[in-house]
Amino acid sequence: MQTENPNFKSGYVAVIGRPNVGKSTLFNLISAALTPKPGIIKFKGVDITGIKPNRICRMGLARTFQNVKIFSNMSVLDNVLMGSFFGSSAKISASRARQEAEETLAFVGLLGVKESPSADLTLSNQKRLEVARALATKPDVLMLDEMMEGLNQSEVSQSMALVTRIRNEKGVTVIMIEHVMKAIMNMCDRIMVLHHGAKIADGTPQEIVADETVMKVYLGDHARAVC
């Protein structure tokens, strides 16, 4: 499987498409939750097909999930500590891990609730916590699976600001599965469109909006006005 495009070198990529076309499956393949049959997955030019998810994570690839997967019986801080210990390729002391976890929580705006049970957080903050745990692994590439789904307009704007900071301040490449057109069109430099498991378009937001096939199978004529 090839997802690279030599014409694009920016840090924001969106993967869009109607429900059940294979977007989350793509993330599952890349992160080794699933194995491609046939096909291969390459990351940084290295074939990672069949490599265990923990090794892929330590190579610099982290993700969140469409349905938030936090350790709800643990505190906010302990969730992020798990990322610090899991993602580090070298041994890290408990004190250093805690320091890094607290810095990450401050970055996403959750330091003030670090001792709170994760289950008590709002949906928006649970999504932020999942992002924090992924960032704690020190990724080069962060895959966000519908981070803004179910959020109100204010929360969407806050999430967009966070994602912008992730790239600008941490230098992390962000790949987003998203349906919030405001976020897709205002943030992403490159958009890939999936339909029935196949890539039918790949380009800038302007190119995608002008693509008649995309308009027909996904965006609809109203998208021109929205975008």
Proper CATH architecture of the largest domain: 3-Layer(aba) Sandwich
Largest sheet report: 6 strands, mixed
Helix proportion of residues, in percent? 40-55%
- Low-confidence region ranges: 1-10
Number of alpha- plus pi-helical segments: 10
- The termini sit apart by 30 Å
How many domains make up the coordinates? Answer: 2
Mean pLDDT: 88
In terms of DSSP E residues, the strand content is: 5-15%
Rg, Å, rounded: 18 Å
Instruction: Quote the CATH topology of the largest domain.
Output: Rossmann fold
Strand order of the largest sheet: 4-5-6-1-7-8
Shape type: globular
> How many individual β-strands?
8
Structural class: alpha/beta
By CATH's scheme, which homologous superfamily of the largest domain applies? P-loop containing nucleotide triphosphate hydrolases
CATH class type of the largest domain: Alpha Beta
Characterization of this structure:
The protein is α/β, with parallel strands linked by helices and 227 residues long. It folds into two domains: 1-60 and 140-227, P-loop containing nucleotide triphosphate hydrolases (Rossmann fold); 70-138, no CATH class. It is built from ten helices and eight strands. A six-stranded mixed beta sheet has the order 4-5-6-1-7-8, sandwiched between helices. It has a two-stranded antiparallel ribbon with strand order 2-3. The radius of gyration is 18 Å and the shape is globular. The chain starts with 11 loop residues before the first strand and ends with a helix.
